[in-house]
């Protein structure tokens, strides 16, 4: 009887934790892409960490700049040393909320959402609103987003000599597959 | 006559310059399996260093090649096929993404690794995001 009671308490506790708890992805995908007639640039990382709070729809996203990979080693070097100054600003961060968040969004098929919050890149804060999707895909909670940023908005200066090779806007793509997190 | 030599000299310098430039432009990614570890450290100590003073540990270890020994707690494959080893703690441990070329040639080594057993990896430390990120990495033993 005691065992049964204990088991039911545990069950109730875990179910309630699941429904109001947090979701995490430690290997979220993030990329940025710029295309010009001279050069296509694609940097990708699958090491971003993101936490989604299912009680209020708050999303926190962080990525280490040094985890971005490029086709060419030289691009990676320039990205970290010249543009992002990764030793000074090692992380890009986003903190925001899903507009009109409802808990059902996390347990139903993929739906379109808008996420707004503050993006911090290169030490500069900027408020953004990005379109995205969230919902179950093959039994997994998946969130995606795609939006554009302008490097100069974040105090990133690109020398005029190579300015034509790097697109005026960068397209950022994010994809995270969340798992329940916590007790 | 002197002018002729000068022209040849300029041409030679130009070819060398262009060669060096192209070599730099197409420089391949460093091969982690051939790189020497700058520090040898246990997984527990590395985690402790990042958790107690992240900024200092980032300065000391970020972008450095480390040889890390610890306990394997999880082995995963990411959607893109990358092999992932997690040391010490599944949530706040060390996440090592294996070098894809190395992993392709050493699948048996990866498959023989058992959760709970000791493992030593060598890889580039990328910093700290809840866990210590190491990529690319190879298994040493």
What can you tell me about this protein's structure?
The complex is a heterodimer of chains A (183) and B (141). Chain A has 183 residues and is α+β, with helices and mostly antiparallel strands. Chain A has helices at 2-20, 73-83, 160-163; strands at 22-35, 40-53, 58-64, 91-98, 111-121, 124-137, 140-149, 170-181. Chain A has a single domain (21-181), classed as Lipid/polyisoprenoid-binding, YceI-like (Lipocalin). Chain A has 3 helices and 8 strands; from the N terminus they run αβββαββββαβ. In chain A, strand 1 and strand 2 form a beta hairpin. Chain B has a 5-stranded mixed beta barrel with strand order 2-3-4-6-5. Chain B starts with a helix and ends with a strand. The chains are: A alpha+beta (183), B alpha/beta (141).
Write a brief structural summary.
The complex is a heterodimer of chains A (183) and B (141). Chain A is of the alpha+beta class and 183 residues long. Helix content of chain A is 19%, strand content 49%.
User: In angstroms, what is the radius of gyration of chain B?
Assistant: 21 Å
Number of strands of chain A: 8
Helix content bin of chain B: 25-40%
CATH level 4 superfamily of chain A: Lipid/polyisoprenoid-binding, YceI-like
- State the end-to-end CA separation of chain A: 24 Å
Supply the CATH class of the largest domain in chain B: Mainly Beta
Structure classification of chain B: alpha/beta
Which sequence of SSEs, written as H and E, runs from N to C of chain B? HEHHEEEHHEE
**What kind of sheet is the major sheet of chain A?**
8 strands, antiparallel, barrel
Task: Tell me the span between the first and last alpha carbons of chain B.
Answer: 65 Å
Instruction: Find the CATH topology of chain A.
Output: Lipocalin
For the record, the CATH class of chain A is: Mainly Beta
If interface size is counted as residues with C-beta under 8 Å from the partner's C-beta, which chains form the largest one? A-B, 21 and 27 residues
> How big a fraction of the residues of chain B is strand?
25-35%
Number of domains of chain B: 2
CATH topology of the largest domain in chain B: OB fold (Dihydrolipoamide Acetyltransferase, E2P)
Number of domains of chain A: 1
The outline of chain A comes out as elongated
* Arithmetic mean of pLDDT of chain B: 91
SS strand fraction of chain A: over 45%
